[in-house]
Design goal:
The chain has helices at residues 10-14, 17-30, 69-77, and strands at 2-7, 37-42, 53-55, 61-63. It is an alpha+beta fold. The protein has a single domain (2-80), classed as Glutaredoxin (3-Layer(aba) Sandwich). Strands 2-1-3-4 form a 4-stranded mixed sheet, covered by helices on one side. A hairpin with a 5-residue loop joins strand 3 and strand 4. Bound molecules: FE2/S2 (inorganic) cluster. Residues 7, 9-12, 44-48, 51, 53 line the site of FE2/S2 (inorganic) cluster (FES). Residues 7, 9-12, 44-48, 51, 53 line the site of FE2/S2 (inorganic) cluster.
Length: 81
């Protein structure tokens, strides 16, 4: 199981981490990845200026918005499973 951590610290919360989590949840269902990927919230990942920060299982951190969430999920997460 690979873990994706979405920051729910204050800067990321303000910039929409909740929406990013909802979009990622939909995509996990859409691509039937429930047995491969788990989503969890995280404390501040130290990249508040790039909020919303999301950490991939290899600890690479991405700056994700609700606008680019779908594209980033496909390019940076699904491609690396
Ligand atoms: S609050 Fe999200 S990286 Fe700091």
């Amino acid at each position: 199981m690979k873990t994706i951590k979405v920051c729910i610290g204050s800067a990321c919360h303000i910039k929409g981490s909740y929406e990013v989590i909802e979009i990622f949840k939909e995509l996990i269902e859409e691509y039937k990845l429930q047995t491969k990927v788990e989503l969890c919230g995280s404390f501040c990942l130290g990249k508040c200026r790039d909020a919303v920060s999301v950490m991939r299982w290899d600890e690479k951190i991405f700056s994700i918005s609700k606008e680019n969430a779908r594209e980033m999920f496909k390019n940076e997460f699904i491609s690396y499973l």
